[in-house]
Design a protein that fits this description.
alpha/beta, TIM Barrel, 11 helices, 8 strands, binds SN-glycerol-3-phosphate
Amino acid sequence: MKFFVDTADTKDITELVTTGLLDGVTTNPSLIHKAGRNFLDVVREICGIVDGPVSAEVVALDHLTMMREADVLRKIADNVCVKVPLTVDGLKTCKALTHEGTQVNVTLCFSPNQALLAAKAGATFISPFVGRLDDNGFDGMQLISDIRLIYDNYGFETEILVASVRHPVHVLESAKIGADVMTAPPSVIKALFNHVLTDKGIAGFLADWEKTGQKIV
Ligand code: G3P
């Protein structure tokens, strides 16, 4: 499963890149607002930090303006992936962009039928929002299972990008279901490394090593 980070904070992205485990970045207008920086500048900077896809979202609601915005975004760098909302105009834009060889992430997916439509429109990625479904009393991970089943039934190549990930259990469940990608805030990705028994084990080993009086280097 690929790991994308869901942030527009370039400091966090740079830190995660050093782990060698980061495969891409997703942003959205709210994350750009949080970063407090110029959208195009920050996307350009992120594209220079990571080799993988960097999702940058259009904000227009109509197809023609979405296409104009997408054209600005995809010119920033080869690894820009244009993010469009799951609407009729968003999927029209998805189809046109993928036909021209541009990567597209279809966002704000909350149902299996929406995911089916995105795959038919040739989306590179579909972003189902598991956390927001859970928040509203639905079962976010059930949506991921349903999409996996549907995509496998027909051999769709659209990658399932689990979004709105809130905690490590979402990551675990995504991997068990066979999602292609998950995108999570930096804090959730960092939490994946941690286990109390790992810390305890290191402390015990180091205490015993100290008693040997030896050094490796
Ligand atoms: O970037 C899309 C998605 O990951 C947003 O997550 O936490 O705002 O629901 P959240």
